Amino acid sequence: MVGVDIVAISRIAAFYEKHGENALKRYLHPQEIQLAKSNATRAGFWAAKEAISKALGCGIGQMCGFHDITLYKDQKGAPHFTLATHLLEHFNITDHSLSIAHDGGFAIAVVSIQSNSPTAHKVQ
Q1: Which label site among 30, 51, 89, 96 has the fewest CB atoms less than 10 Å from its CB?
Q2: Per-residue pLDDT tens over the stretch 60-100
Q3: CA neighbours closer than 13 Å in the CB half-sphere of residue 74
Q4: Active-site residues: which are they?
């Protein structure tokens, strides 16, 4: 399963400027807020969570909320994520990967999720 999302960095910057830290708390965990020091990173994190939910086939909503996805970086700064237990179990996820890029005023995220579930995209 693959998910992709792109967002204008200026959109996330305006959201942050209008609502401050409360904007970040809407879609980021406290440890993610510590990592998201620039508007480009904040936009990349937004795109990543949207792309992950699209790869699952459910989007951000009742089954998968922003806080059901946790982003982190490894020692080399590469992005990774973990999912809430209910998502791992429902979709029988075996592996996943994430890439985030920023250029030309946009942030884009691409996600690949492997699942052993024959009905992975059939959200109930």
Answers
A1: 30
A2: 999 999 999 999 999 999 999 999 999 999 999 999 999 99
A3: 9
A4: 54, 102
Q: In whole angstroms, what is the distance from residue 65 CA to residue 38 CA?
A: 23
Give the tokens for residue 120: 């992975």
Domains annotated for the chain, with CATH where assigned, are 2-115 (3.90.470.20)
Backbone angles phi, psi at 110, to 5 degrees: -125, 130
Enter the pTM of the model. Answer: 0.92
Cα 118 from chain centre: 23
How many helices (H) does the chain have, and how many strands (E)? 5, 5
Question: Helices 9-19 and 39-56 sit at what angle, rounded to 10 degrees?
Answer: 110
Per the CB < 8 A criterion, the answer to whether 45 and 32 are in contact is yes
Instruction: Write out pLDDT tens, residues 6-38.
Output: 999 999 999 999 999 999 999 999 999 999 999
